[in-house]
Design the sequence.
């Protein structure tokens, strides 16, 4: 899905106070990284960061355009933010590989930071030329971020924020570098959001259909159950036999056994093709304590066997159709039986445009949510997203309210909500109070279906069409804005 270079942010949810519950496939754009990969705070830093002079580091200009310069110390912060995040994932079972992982993570962090900063420099230049600036609310977000860093430094016993930043990101990384990086990423996100909205508005239905038709193999999916039966030629070692005759006899016996095993594999696969439903297919395997493999919403690229691809996608095998296939080499053979559970086609699932309120269960109880729903249904204003927002104000839940368009039911992260949205009950005008758990945290949601959205295939195709346009813009912008990069310092011994 989205092919464009995205700007990520693991910090956004910490500053917004909102819980990101819906994966909006139609919303390809995500917030900026905010200069760091979340607040990954490590009490004991595994690696002493780059010990370079602050003046030397800041004098470097690894990424620059006419009006935007990402200094060496800003890049160092971005680079080591990634590294500290990666290394924080190392647990006790991995400590024996720590030296290797350090080198690997440093290389990975460098690549990620380089990619990010190229994007930031280009978007920053575009924002400057458009006269775009941060507003007061965004400046407050920056200050909150810096205040949180101050708290982090104090919490872990550092004498100052500067001491913490030097320890975590390298000598020479100062608060002003962190702040400048965060301001730049917020500005980039602001510009990118506006640009993407303009591009999206210009995409017509004909554009989406053409994009879909040009990339149909990415969107036509099928589902099946399958099971593989394998046969393997036994290894025969000459050293195990006293004479050539004995060795040759053993080779022949192995070949004969392999031939019989292949026939048995074919027979078992063929037997499964007599199933008339997925339930029967599963039950037949269960008799031998076997479990089928489910292929759900697979595309052509997920399969490698040409005859299987032709049967599923070219012939468009119908639901409950079965077939067995065999393939192998001189020493290995696999017989596979399939039953189709969803015939090949584009995803016509109806998406939902929803207004929803979400909060942790301790802040929004099921009882309160039920009361909210009852009042909402009885509202003199009628049931609409506007009247729901009005009632949310009364309940002081405005900050917990969100609107999402073209939500594919299966993409909602809370299973209980996903199941409700996929049910016949979730028609336009329906509302429900639902409890669920995500990452071991209990949530309560109030979900209102404002209207039906576009079919899922169209949402996906439009998302990718937009992503392609943004990617093309970014590629051209690097030349248009004369992006210059120089990471020589980080590749030299001076950076050690």
Sequence:
């Amino acid at each position: 899905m989205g092919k464009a270079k995205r700007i990520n942010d693991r910090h956004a949810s910490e500053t917004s106070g909102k819980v990101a519950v819906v994966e909006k496939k139609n919303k390809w754009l995500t917030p900026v990284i905010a200069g760091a990969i979340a607040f990954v705070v490590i009490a004991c830093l595994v690696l002493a960061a780059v010990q370079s002079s602050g003046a030397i580091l800041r004098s470097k200009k690894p990424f620059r355009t006419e009006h935007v310069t990402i200094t060496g110390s800003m890049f160092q912060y971005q680079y080591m933010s990634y590294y500290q995040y990666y290394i924080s994932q190392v647990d006790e079972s991995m400590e024996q590989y720590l030296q290797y992982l350090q080198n690997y993570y440093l290389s990975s962090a460098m690549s990620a930071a380089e990619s990010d900063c190229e994007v930031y420099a280009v978007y920053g230049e575009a924002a400057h030329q458009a006269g775009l600036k941060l507003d007061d609310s965004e400046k407050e977000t920056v200050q909150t971020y810096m205040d949180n860093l101050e708290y982090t430094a104090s919490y872990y016993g550092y004498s100052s924020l500067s001491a913490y930043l030097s320890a975590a990101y390298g000598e020479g990384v100062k608060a002003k570098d962190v702040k400048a990086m965060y301001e730049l990423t917020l500005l980039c996100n602001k510009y990118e959001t506006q640009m993407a909205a303009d591009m999206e508005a210009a995409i017509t239905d004909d554009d989406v259909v053409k994009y879909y038709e040009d990339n149909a193999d990415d969107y036509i999916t099928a589902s099946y159950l399958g099971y593989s039966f394998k046969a393997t030629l036994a290894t025969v070692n000459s050293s195990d036999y006293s004479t050539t005759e004995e060795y040759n006899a053993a080779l022949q016996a192995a070949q004969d056994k392999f031939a019989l095993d292949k026939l048995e594999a074919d027979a078992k696969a063929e037997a499964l093709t007599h199933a008339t439903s997925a339930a029967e297919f599963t039950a037949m395997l269960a008799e031998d304590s076997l479990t089928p493999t489910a292929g759900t919403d697979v595309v052509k690229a997920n399969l490698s066997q040409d005859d299987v691809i032709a049967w599923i996608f070219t012939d468009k095998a119908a639901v409950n159709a079965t077939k067995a296939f065999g393939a192998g080499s001189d020493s290995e053979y696999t017989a596979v039986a399939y039953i189709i559970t969803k015939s090949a086609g584009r995803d016509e699932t109806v998406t939902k445009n929803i207004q929803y309120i979400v909060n942790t269960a301790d802040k929004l109880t099921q009882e309160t949510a039920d009361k909210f729903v009852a009042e909402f249904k009885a509202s003199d204003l009628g049931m609409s997203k506007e009247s729901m927002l009005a009632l949310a104000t009364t309940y002081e839940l405005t900050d917990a309210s969100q609107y999402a368009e073209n939500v594919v039911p299966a993409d909602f992260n809370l299973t209980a909500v996903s199941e409700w949205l996929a049910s016949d009950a979730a028609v336009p005008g329906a509302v429900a109070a639902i409890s669920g758990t995500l990452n071991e945290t209990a949530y309560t949601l109030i979900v209102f279906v404002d209207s039906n959205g576009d079919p899922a295939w169209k949402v996906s195709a439009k998302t990718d069409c937009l992503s392609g346009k943004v990617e093309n813009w970014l590629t051209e912008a690097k030349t248009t804005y004369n992006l210059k990069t120089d990471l020589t310092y980080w590749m030299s011994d001076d950076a050690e």
